[in-house]
Write a structure and sequence with these properties.
By secondary structure, this protein is an alpha/beta fold. About 25% of the residues lie in helices and about 20% in strands. An eight-stranded parallel beta barrel has the order 20-21-23-24-25-26-27-31, surrounded by six helices. The protein has a six-stranded mixed β-sheet with strand order 14-19-17-18-16-15, with helices on one face. A five-stranded antiparallel β-sheet has the order 7-8-5-10-11, with helices on one face. It catalyses: Hydrolysis of terminal non-reducing N-acetyl-D-hexosamine residues in N-acetyl-beta-D-hexosaminides.
């Protein structure tokens, strides 16, 4: 090196030589070295990552083969306050849509599997100087319309697979709202290019100003006045609304001394949970002579459906008659609904009630992100309180298996947790921003004892638990768990045991991609070991249910298919060749699997439930007589047609339409409002209340599509060229079995967030499941084409609906939210509508019963009681009367 410097100085001037020397020394001093574990720790602590969605409009950089060339542009801004002089490290991160291409010389981004991507420095990477920022611009499929699309917990790893979460990408919990925040996501600033899908997207961001105008439609002053009297309108409301009720305008029943229950011919254990809820809310249960007698009686009645009851509140006693113990239970819950927290009276009157639908359900996805046992027990309490009776518990999917199966411990040893193990022999890959901590809140499972506790709690509240372990698609957790089992026994030399429950064909070279971009998430339906696995699981689950005295009578198989799976599977080629069921091509295998599993379940006395898309390919004659079809077609895309087809062929249809029943979608069109939005940008509690399940196509008259444009719903008879029915109206006097709300959990990582998404929408769900609205439009069995010009939902019906909503929302605000708070439910506190006119702040809310606060950017929160003079931008938020919880703050711009 010294000789080179001498030669250099002989050929150049002294100053040039010195400059060249300094340059060479600088390069030597910044030479990059392979990342040690200590270097990974430094990167995790010092690297600041910012995620910035830039533009949703398609450009020349978009892959024209994807969704008509739609893609969005985003930046990852990487900076550090400490120099980084190491290489041979990677950053794994979750991204909900595949990244197509990037603009960077120093980095690459590649798709790994599912939502998992990896950033790697190239040979042109020069390290990070102190406070240097490097920007990676990338283009990804479709659109990104919410700041909550970004996933937390970017993982930096070296060649030793030493992994740490980058601190700057961790989620935090907002102290005021109790909800998760992602500080590394940059807020939207361009409404047109960041907040909208296309030029035709009419969605308006719900600002405080727009919300103020919307809230003005409902004036709660009359309800507040009425509520000052114990016999007011709100005091007489029951949620869900009964079929018939009539109350005195002058008389009340004083319950300050408590209630005494006379069970007569009623099994006390069947109604104890409802009585316990009364006590939680503040109604004493006592044997005092001064207590009010509550007389319970079962009355034989062969005409009224299960759950029907009559409730008579007299001046000195309460009488409850019902056709079964679920009816007694629901009548007691109606007492709880009439009660206002901290009061000592009930209105005197009569109630006659029966459910509109037999199936009144909620799905909770605990597979993608786990919800612990206590969360489910709390939810069961609230389901019982509002007369919901089906819990569809989604226990298995690509990202997790959540139920212990004693004979197959690998399912929970491997499949119940995500960490950083590229071999996936100890855990699954960290999809959905799970990070590296196997004990985090996103991970976990129900032991047999846990699950049986859930089953017993459900039985006590007259709720049927319908478990779901998805198959054949959405099965990656099971497949990887059984692969780990296979490897374990193969290593021990026990090939027979290794292959006993194998779910994939090791010789299969098929390349495919599921809806969530997995290339290995589909059970191979041509292996007998797959059916042996399903039989083993079902026998075990049935036994667990039986021991808990909650019989497994219905099971949801999912039935999701993966296009293109099994194409190159030797096992499938052999299966088709040797099978005598008439299968001649690979495209028939998915429906054959569903038919075979459905009949397997029937042989176990278990009824089959499944999603409509998978069921739509099955042969009706090969299916059992009883099939539950969850219809999840989007109403804006004629989703009613498949629902009608299944009803007409006498399957039990449970409506699960995403436009209104997916509670993982946002409440409002606001990029800060959490939730996915592929089917709707906004599903608030009022929209759920507006649902008419008995007439699906009529919603085209008053709802909009996912870009807030009008749509048309065609419910007329359609035939193909051969004269076969493509779609048709309902056959007269055929009906759906019921409705189900869905809480999928891809970006629901905490219990608080899950309850926020469920409540108060769950109360509107209960209202529509139990009570047929007086303003609903009768179904036209002759068929009809509905649009915003068809006028079947008349102005008079709209006015009646809005009046009923006003009563319902006032009841939530003045009675039910206080109960939810008393029972520690983290319900959504409404945003405040506000505007500044002539330097005066005006504010309002969609519900009464909350307080409003305001502040300047640097000021303290002050109570808002009436319009107030302001001279700058203002922030507004709501808080509960107790002052224990706050809603999200919105900014109000000073003109």
């Amino acid at each position: 090196m010294k000789l080179l410097l001498v030669v250099c100085c002989m050929a150049l001037s002294v100053s040039a030589c010195q400059s060249n020397t300094e340059s060479r020394q600088q390069k030597q001093s910044t030479k990059l070295s392979p990342a040690t574990n200590a270097a990974i720790d430094t990167i995790a602590q010092s690297l600041e990552i910012k995620y910035q969605q830039v533009d949703n409009r398609p450009s020349a950089q978009c892959d024209q083969q994807v969704e008509g060339g739609n893609c969005y542009k985003a930046n990852l801004r990487l900076s550090t306050h400490k120099a980084i002089n190491s290489t041979q490290w990677k950053i794994y991160f979750s991204h909900i849509t595949p990244i197509q291409s990037i603009e960077s010389e120093e980095f690459t981004i590649n798709h790994v599997n599912g939502d998992l991507h990896v950033i790697e420095p190239t040979d042109k990477f020069t390290g990070f100087k102190t406070n240097e920022t490097k920007v990676i611009t990338f283009y990804a499929d479709f659109w990104s319309l919410s700041e909550t699309d970004a996933m937390p917990n970017y993982i930096v790893v070296n060649n030793n697979d030493y992994a740490k979460v980058v601190n700057s990408t961790k989620a935090i919990i907002d102290e005021d709202t109790g909800l998760e925040l992602l500080p590394f996501v940059m807020p939207y600033t361009d409404t047109e290019r960041q907040f909208k899908r296309t030029k035709n997207d009419k969605t308006q961001r719900l600002t405080a100003e727009r919300l103020y105008e919307r809230n003005k439609k409902y004036d709660f002053s009359s309800y507040l006045t009425q509520n000052q009297q114990s016999t007011g309108v709100i005091a007489q409301q029951i949620i869900p609304t009964p079929s018939y009720s009539k109350f005195s305008s002058t008389r009340t029943l004083n319950i300050s001394e408590g209630l005494h229950f006379n069970f007569n011919n009623v099994n006390k254990n069947k109604v104890t949970a409802a009585i316990n809820r009364l006590e939680k809310l503040g109604i004493k249960r006592t044997n005092s002579a001064l207590a009010i007698d509550v007389n319970l009686h079962l009355v034989a009645n062969s005409t009224d459906p299960q759950g029907s009851y009559q409730l008579a509140i007299k001046a000195d006693a309460i009488d409850i008659n019902a056709v079964d113990e679920s009816g007694i239970f629901y009548a007691i819950q109606s007492l709880a609904s009439l009660y206002k927290v901290a009061s000592d009276t009930l209105p005197v009157g009569d109630v006659k009630d029966l459910p509109h639908y037999q199936f009144r359900g909620i799905l909770v996805d605990v597979a993608r992100n786990f919800r612990d046992k206590n969360f489910i027990l709390k939810l069961l309490d609230q389901m019982g309180a509002y007369k919901l009776n089906k819990l569809h518990l989604h226990l298995g999917d690509d990202e997790g298996w959540r139920l212990a199966i004693p004979s197959l411990p690998e399912l929970t040893q491997v499949g119940s947790k995500r960490c950083f193990d590229k071999t996936e022999q100890q855990c699954l890959l960290p999809q959905l921003g799970a990070g590296v901590d196997a004990s985090s809140e996103a991970n976990g499972f129900y032991s047999v004892a846990d699950y049986q506790e859930i089953l017993k709690a459900a039985s006590a509240r007259h709720i049927q638990v319908i478990p779901s372990l998805d198959m054949p698609g959405h099965s990656r957790a099971a497949i990887k768990s059984m692969t780990a089992r296979y490897n374990k026994y193969l290593k021990q030399g026990d090939t027979l045991k290794a292959e006993q429950f194998l779910l994939h064909d090791p010789s299969d070279t098929t390349q495919y991609s599921s809806v969530q971009y997995y290339n290995d998430n589909t059970i191979n339906v041509c292996l007998e070991s797959s059916y042996a696995f399903i039989n083993e699981v079902m026998q075990q689950v049935k036994a667990i249910h039986s021991e808990a005295k909650h019989p497994l009578t219905r099971y949801h198989i999912g039935a999701d298919e993966t296009a293109g799976a099994w194409v190159s599977s030797p096992a499938c080629a052999q299966y088709i060749k040797n099978n005598d069921s008439g299968i001649t091509k690979l495209s028939q295998l998915g429906s054959h699997f569903i038919e075979r599993i459905a009949n397997m379940l029937e042989s176990m006395d278990i009824e089959t439930a499944a999603w409509s898309d998978g069921l739509s390919h099955t042969n009706l004659h090969n299916m059992p007589a009883v099939v539950q079809a969850n219809s999840w077609g989007l109403l804006m895309w004629n989703g009613h047609q498949l629902a009608h087809q299944f009803v007409n062929q006498d399957w039990q249809v449970v409506l699960s339409n995403p436009d209104v029943l997916y509670f993982d979608f946002p409440y409002e069109a606001d990029p800060k409002e959490p939730g996915y939005y592929w089917g709707s940008r906004h599903i608030n509690t009022e929209k759920v209340f507006q649902f008419m399940p008995d007439n699906l196509p009529v919603h085209a008259e008053f709802w909009l599509d996912r870009e807030d444009n009008p749509y048309v719903a065609d419910d007329t008879l359609k035939l193909d060229e051969a004269g076969n029915i493509k779609s048709a109206p309902l056959i007269a006097n055929k009906h759906v079995l019921g409705i189900q709300g869905q809480l999928w959990s891809e970006n629901t990582r905490t219990n608080n967030m899950a309850e926020y998404k469920l409540f108060p929408r769950l109360l509107s769900l209960a209202e529509r499941a139990w009570h047929k609205a007086s303003w609903s439009v009768p179904y036209n069995y002759n068929g009809f084409v509905y649009s915003q010009n068809s006028d079947r939902f008349t102005k008079q019906l709209a006015q009646l609906r809005d009046f009923k909503w006003q009563t319902f929302s006032a009841t939530l605000g003045l009675k039910e939210f206080a109960k939810l708070e008393a029972e520690n439910i983290h319900f959504r506190i409404p945003n405040v509508g506000a505007q500044i006119v002539k330097s005066t702040l005006f504010a309002n809310l969609a519900y009464p019963g909350f307080l409003i606060e305001y502040k300047t950017v640097d000021g303290q929160w002050s109570d808002y009681k009436q319009p107030v003079k302001v001279d700058a931008d203002i922030w507004v938020r709501a808080k509960t009367i107790s002052g224990n919880r706050f809603g999200r703050a919105l900014k109000v711009a000073h003109p």
